[in-house]
Amino acid sequence: MIVNVKANTNPAQRITRKGFGYKPFEGYGIGEQLVEAFARTHKKRKLIVKEVLETWDAATNNDRLMDFECLRVEFPEIQVTSSKENIIFKFPRKIIQFMPSPESYTRARRSLNTQGIGLPTNDLVFLKRMKRQRTMRQYFKKDGQ
Fold it and tell me: Running DSSP on this structure, what letter comes out for residue 57?
């Protein structure tokens, strides 16, 4: 089937015309529910990250270590074994869908860092993060123009 589409229409208009737009969802308040759900989970993750940063000094300098420890706190059913060369995580398949992205823990750490909580104790890590922050600000400032 060939669809005749004018050159000046964008893909969103074409999808909406075919009945696949967002109109069926308007008025249900889905956006507000998503924002509230995100706020709840972010608050929960901030508490977990705060606990880990206060307990593990090494986690303030290493995001991967912080991520692993936060997973262990949030999901106690995860079993961790380690040797000289390997760290092995064993977790039930049913919790895979509930495991958050490591970025959610990193975001929580960043928001705690703005309050002065869990700042890195290693000067090199602190300088590296500050340099990365300046670079990102310059990039997005330039990109936004």
Answer: S
pLDDT at 110 over 70: yes
Tell me what pLDDT residue 15 has.
47
Cα–Cα distance measured from residue 87 to residue 62, given in angstroms and rounded to the nearest whole number: 16
Measured distance CA(73)–CA(99) in Å, rounded? 12
Average predicted confidence (pLDDT) for the chain: 80
The structure tokens listed for 132 are: 């990365």
Any residues with CB less than 8 A from the CB of 90 and at least 6 apart, and which? Answer: 78, 79, 80, 81
Residues 45, 100 contacting (CB under 8 angstroms):
yes
The C-alpha atoms of residue 46 and residue 111 are separated, in whole angstroms, by 8
Nearest to 60 by CA among 3, 116, 2, 137: 116
Q: Which amino acid is at 94?
A: K
Q: What is the pLDDT of residue 52?
A: 94
Q: Is 99 helix (H, G, I), strand (E, B) or coil?
A: coil
